[in-house]
Sequence to fold (294 residues):
Amino acid sequence: MKMQETGRLVDTIAQTRLERRGFLTRAGLAGLGAAATLTLGNVRAGAESAAERAQEKAQAMDTVKEIFTAALIAEDLATTFYYNGLVGPVIQDVNLAGPGGSATNVQSSGNPGNVNYLQAALTQEIAHADLFRSLLGISSPSADPVQTFYFPAGTFDSLAVFTGLLDALENAFIGAYLNAIQEFSVKSAHGDDRDGSKYSPEQLDYFAKVAATIMGVEAEHRVLGRVISNTNPANNLAYEQTDGLNAVYNGPKSAVAALTPFLTPSTGPGYSLATALANQGSVAIAVTGNPPAF
Fold:
């Protein structure tokens, strides 16, 4: 599959404006925000709201390559996040490895099942990034467009902050993939892409299926994060939400905009993707499953 260069990504992200306070509030770093809601009663044939028109305009700007690129950045961010959670001080919480414990040495006072959740999540995020890298024709992680991610100070020190940010990140990832599914479906119906690239309906349908399979795993991460933090019920949603996002790559309510704080040094300490990937084998555990067949 022919893919164009993705080098312009960082410049695009740098120009994106985001209300950081709003996102970090949802992360639990300044209090939890209310979840977005959706009811079927809001869906009326022939009645298109201003918000729907804005969403369609934003989604129409996204190209397939941009969607893949945004997804790759999100998966690299998640890889870096879960790795540092497994090696940071938070791992010694009693809900994880316990005082004096580690990801590979859970104390009797700890919870090995909860540690396994994080270990499996790390493996899954790496696998997702590998897939998007292959779709973009990127030869290795060292060529990924973002190599350092920034997290608020103390993210990996305490369970409340770590799981609060986990919840906010996973909700953003879920919202991104829900939008991606919709965007691929629309592109399949229209038969073309904004940048002139040509994809068959079968390819675009497949991309939507891939996005759905990954979204399902991100939803698992959201719930298991709530299990770790003893937030009950962990499975508190009847339907996953778009988290206020209306596109993947372009626009002020895109997934790229939502994740911009984690690409910005002013957010907090920087953490290396390369370090996480070089050392993930010491803390990750194997999972099963492959992308859906084309």
User: Anything to note?
Assistant: The first strand starts at residue 148 and ends at 150.
